[in-house]
Amino acid sequence: MMRGCSSRPKLAQNQDRAVCMTNCPTLIVTVGLPARGKTYISKKLTRYLNWIGVPTREFNVGQYRREFVKIYKSFEFFRPDNEEGLKIRRQCASAALNDVRQYLTEEGGQVAVFDATNTTRERRETIIQFAEQNGFKVFFVESVCEDPDVIQENIVQVKLGSPDYTNCNTEEAVEDFMKRIKCYENSYETLDEVLDRDLSYIKIMDVGQRYLVNRVLDHIQSRIVYYLMNIHITPRSIYLCRHGESELNVKGRIGGDSGLTPRGKEFAKKLSNFIQSQDISDLKVWTSQMKRTIQTAEALSVPYEQWKVLNEIDAGDCEEMMYEEIQDNYPLEFALRDQDKYRYRYPKGESYEDLVQRLEPVIMELERQENVLVICHQAVMRCLLAYFLDKTAEELPYLKCPLHTVLKLTPVAYGCKVESICLNVEAVNTHREKPENVNIHRTTEDALQTVPAHL
Amino acid sequence: MLDNDEFRLETSPRELTQNPLRKIWMPCVNEHIAHRRVCMTNCPTVIVTVGLPARGKTYISKKLTRYLNWIGVPTKEFNVGQYRRECLKIYKSFEFFRPDNEEGLKIRRQCATAALNDVRQYLSVEGGQVAVFDATNTTRERRGTIVKFAEQNGYKVFFVESVCEDPDVIAQNIVQVKLGSPDYIHCDTEEAIEDFMKRIKCYESSYQPLDEVLDRDLSYIKIMDVGRRYLVNRVMDHIQSRIVYYLMNIHITPRSIYLCRHGESDLNIKGRIGGDSGLSTRGQEFAKSLRKFIQDQDIKDLKVWTSQMKRTIQTAECLGVPYEQWKSLNEIDAGVCEEMMYEEIQEHYPLEFAMRDQDKYRYRYPKGESYEDLVQRLEPVIMELERQKNILVVCHQAVMRCLLAYFLDKTADELPYLKCPLHTVLKLTPMAYGCKVESVYLGIDSVNTHRDRPENVTVQRSTEDALETVPAHF
């Protein structure tokens, strides 16, 4: 069977843990003045929830406004006495809420992130009523910050490049944006400990120095709070790479716990040189508990931590087999894997979906950390990369993570910059593309069409 | 140190050897290794409770200590009230706590100092990683003393304040844990409550709660109204982050947790471990009995969880209610020993078999798991169990031992030998500072799968010695 469940009960009586975390859909609502990181939080949260398997989408009201108004003239649009502007903004919020309803009620979404200033109690009340009518839970995420340096940095990082300011120079843009913020300040009603005591919310103060958490209602809200309390915006880089080429790699065999080949050891040395040349302050190094990643880290001559959860995907009955042997012994399994590589679980082994669940604490700790080098494995690296680069479950198992190549990820604006550094030590290719024919009746030739070369 | 580094740069990377017990790869000279489980924080942490009497400080202290120890962080609590009881011997009345009682103040200060001394001993000498300093600590002055103490010793400080003004909650607290306190052994209920309320009053006028402005440089969590609201300030590291997450997930709503294993399986009868077999006839009988038992218990909104193995799912199917499958509830992976009988393990892997008996908690099956690994993978289950209300977990022997050890505060040495027989339901009900356990045997015969630690655990032992405690099977 696809997921390795030998007796699969009727759908009505069964829920797989990863699939359903909450009984009814949740609407996350951001609150805060412009340039307080609401969109940053919305996008990051959406990325995280999707990665752990909770279908989530963000709805940025500013986007709706840009599509409606086409050309942004100036901050005057946002003046509290601009009737025309207010009307348009209200319509945009309604349009966005309509799409939220569509997503949560008809398209199978579980969480919608409603990203807007939502700075008045009146606007928030409208949203709460909307949620009540539709049977959605509401969770507010407010970001409060008065540090002028942080706000300035925010504007430089994400506002200057906004479509609103395409035709302005830096000074003009900053000046206009500051006036825009001013338009909201007078009517800003922050979430209040007394007036809003019945709402569920987290108030993030001064970029995470302090948090106020009120009425967390369920598991997903608890996870969201935990996640938000662990992220930070301190600049840093995350380096991801695989172990050096291993003995089983060159034989075209998957899994196992073999040591490095001479080329693999070469890579480890080059990795050491590379790391030293990067001159990274306080670099943490993590490995799995498999020999090949530890051997690689040993060459760096710096302390490293071993994580069992970074071990390669468990191929169960197929451990240490060549793809040719899997096709020979388990042709049905091999075809099922090609049909849905993300959800397919090896007999007595794991699936990519299982891997993501076991890697979640790694992601959480990576969020807490600063400069980190993670030496891991192909499937594991694909999962971690998918988190940082917001890849779907369909794309994840086919991400290219070749041996002897380091990926340097640097958070930037709303996403992640990736630099790929090949350390120029030859290695076998271990990447097997999805073949054309994934039918269980396919020929051996069709099945092995995309198997990479090996000894 | 410098010479060592230079030398290392010129030689090839160190050879690795795999520790035979834990299956951990390490260099032959064990220096740079840090196992994730072992070290979560660079320096020890002192958790300091803050709050008026009857605000749940000791409840939180004990629970937190239990949780941290279970996930592998050596933690100990130091309750200043205990020190006071040992010093004073006999508690007379609330007058001891009057703010103008010089003698009382002196003794209380001495007790706090004695407790801090023991904290230092535990964290600096005995290898402890977290100490929970449980006292009212209601004045900024007292907290300042503790912060200085921590600075002098290189400890981090994290405050946990509990604030509550709900009279019902406070009354319930007094009934649950104060009436039975050694302080009130010779009082009747009314006298005890009256005295305790006056005791609380003694603290109220000098109470300085953690302040958003005055205490903005401290790391703390302020828990308000039994978890309705939290204020979290300056979380510094991983362990503090985990503590906050844990504290935000626990609750005190009465409920019961039912733990049981799947019904007897076909592999159980054959004396084989692991695998993914179905229920035997008797196992199916048990499932039916379980159904009746659950119905008789008349539990409100019961959630049912199983693993993703056939035998637990078959058991749950019989209940006729919705259930959730968790892969993390799967039985311990015995790796190359999967589906073997103990006799076969002794025959093919006598060394492994002996090492397992030497340290059953840390021993990892070749290509499998250890109990220590199990605990790590069960942590999200425990976290969700804390969030939930009434729940039945249908799982497996090793898994159940781990969960039970968490609720009953068992050590790593006791855990792998906890008795979790087939066809027996354990009903756990949180009570006062711990957990009441009721063991309900549902009257259906089954094999015994519990293998006690044999006397002889040396690697050279005879087969007979090795198999001495193997339970009977077909």
Structure in words:
Chain B: One of its GO terms (cellular component) is cytosol. Chain B: Keywords: ATP-binding, Hydrolase, Kinase, Multifunctional enzyme, Nucleotide-binding, Phosphoprotein, Transferase. Chain B: One of its GO terms (molecular function) is fructose-2,6-bisphosphate 2-phosphatase activity. The structure is a homodimer. With 455 residues, chain A is α/β, with parallel strands linked by helices. Chain A has 15 helices and 13 strands. The first copy, chain A, has helices spanning 38-51, 61-69, 83-106, 121-134, 148-159, 170-185, 219-228, 247-250, 262-278, 291-298, 323-329, 331-339, 352-368, 378-389, 444-447, and strands at 14-16, 26-31, 56-60, 111-115, 137-144, 201-205, 210-214, 238-242, 284-287, 304-306, 372-376, 405-412, 415-422. In chain A, the strands form 2 sheets. Chain A has a 6-stranded mixed beta sheet, sandwiched between helices. In chain A, strand 6 and strand 7 (210-214) form a beta hairpin. In chain A, helix 2 packs across helix 3, helix 5 crosses helix 6 and helix 13 crosses helix 14. The longest helix of chain A is centred in the first third of the chain and has 24 residues, at 83-106. Mean pLDDT of chain A is 93; it is low at 1-20. The interface between A and B is large, with 54 and 56 residues.
